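Example record used in the benchmark description.
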Amino acid sequence: MSYSDGFIAGLGRNAETHARPGKEMMRRSTRRLVASLGIGLLAAMIVSFGDAAYGAQGSAIISAAVAPGSSTDTQGSFFVLHAHAGDNIRQSVIVKNGNDRTLAVNIAGVDAYTSSNTGATYGSPGSTPTHTGTWLQVTQRQIQLIAGQQRTLSFSVAVPRDAKPGQYLAGLSIAVPKEGSDAAPTPNGNQTGFVVALQAQRLIAVEIDVPGVVQSKLSVDGVHPVARGEMIELELAISNRGNGFARGRGVLTVADTGLRHEFAISTFVANTSIAMLVPWTHNAVVGRHAVAVTITNDDGRRSNWNGIVAIDQRLQARLNSLLHVAAPSVRRSGVAGASVSPTAIGGGAISVVACCAVAVRLRRRRAFREGSSRQRMI
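Model output (structure tokens):
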């Protein structure tokens, strides 16, 4: 994601100070669902967007748990390995088919990122890991489980010989191959047709701690206005350039509009960055708006950012023209679950994204900026 589109510049500076230790939001997406550390389930569903229907088939759910004897967190819910560069550590997971039919099950390592409102999220089934997910090596990448069968499977974590000290995170993905047709609906008029094919996935976090000096380093990289639905929002770019997980809290203020937005920072994975969206005003306001952001880590370290968001009349008109665009109505039926929201690592171990084959037709709409909630590695 680039912030150099020329429309607006949130120019500022970062400063890090030290303070006394202090006390310590999931944006919906029609394109993808993400899992976090913690337990959650979204079951097969049928959704209608105006005259365009989402059709979904039921998804089989596989259960998975850390096997006894594995190296885990204090609750025994996800893997925590203390390893040195070059180590190869074997661990085990229990996988069970609680359905009434035989199922194929895919097992693989996936990368971990930070979600747009902080908290860990993971690669989807079949995604190709490029970071810590590559450390997970699975001997049997697909198995067959008959109805009611349970198996204990081994996998290894191979820490690269050049791995530097730090906290690393990946996910062990246990997924049922997707079912149903990927045929796209036929578009007509001003509609666009595409297919989102999802599948059942269960995730177990794998944290690898390589000894040495470990420290998080949160920083604000910029603030930019975006038009979203009924609001003008501020897109807050935050990065963790340290080698450790970050947690804490933050506050964003815009004095001339009276905005003060406090937010919690759940698990922020090392070497990742996000774009957090903060509701601002109902209409774009002309002016040079002074923005201040303060982020306080759990250990008391504080990072300050101060900058200007400048909105002239031309930009104001453009932003306002994109507000109040009638969003398609949503009608739901057959919803048998709940959405998954990000949690801290300590909040749990296994996440589930229960997925479905979805046929979508969406009306073409212009968007001022893609205020992306996609994570990127830095």
